[in-house]
Specification:
By secondary structure, the protein is mainly α. It has a single domain, classed as nmb1532 protein domain like (Four Helix Bundle (Hemerythrin (Met), subunit A), Up-down Bundle), CATH 1.20.120.520. 77% of the residues lie in helices and 0% in strands. Helix 2 runs antiparallel to helix 3 and helix 3 runs antiparallel to helix 4. The chain is elongated. Bound molecules: fe (ii) ion (2 copies).
């Protein structure tokens, strides 16, 4: 059963491909927030409301699953491989996890102000500034964070993890999304 997360490109036989697909969605929503930030000093239109609601929902519900895929399933398995190439990437992994932590209060700020805007239809001038600053910081962080994961970490994982490890990651990803993986992949390290 080819179950996709995000863009319909990869399935559970290729968990790092799935994580890349997730990134295409992660990239989309900061863009939505930036569009909202441009007009958040004005009364909300229906289109702005819809965009804001979908972005807030994505970051509240789907993005934490992606972070867990990386921090609980992928990174720990990479750290278990004793290979100079992986070991030299460890500092990058540490930094990526730091960025996940760093983003949390910014998301909380965007969430709080976004919910207030949806409720009342307007924000005070300082709140508009805070919303814009938080969105700009998140958008810039995601851009370079995703680039490191897509260009360095995921290709490394695709090369170095065994099929058994990939299958275990895929199953954990599926469990987080309450879908069942029915797939066959061969066993043994690539
Ligand atoms: Fe990440
Ligand atoms: Fe990621």
């Amino acid at each position: 059963m080819p179950v996709q997360i995000g863009a319909p490109t990869h399935n559970f036989t290729d968990p790092t491909g799935l994580l890349t697909d997730c990134h295409r969605r992660v990239e989309m929503f900061p863009g939505t927030l930036e569009t909202v930030a441009d007009v958040i000093d004005r009364p909300a239109t229906e289109e702005t409301r819809r965009g804001l609601e979908s972005a807030l929902r994505y970051f509240a519900q789907a993005a934490p699953k992606h972070t867990a895929d990386e921090e609980e399933s992928l990174f720990p398995r990479l750290r278990q491989i004793h290979d100079p190439e992986i070991e030299s990437a460890f500092s990058k992994l540490d930094h990526l996890e730091d960025e996940h932590r760093w983003a949390a209060p910014l998301h909380a700020e965007v969430d709080r102000l976004g919910a207030q805007y949806l409720l009342t239809g307007c924000l005070s001038s300082p709140d508009v500034d805070d919303f814009r600053k938080a969105v700009a910081s998140l958008a810039s962080m995601y851009k370079q964070h995703i680039s490191v994961e897509d260009s360095l970490v995921f290709p490394l994982a695709a090369r170095m993890l065994s099929d058994v490890e990939k299958m275990a990651i895929a199953e954990e990803m599926a469990r987080r999304r309450q879908v069942r993986v029915v797939t066959e992949i061969s066993t043994g390290r690539k």
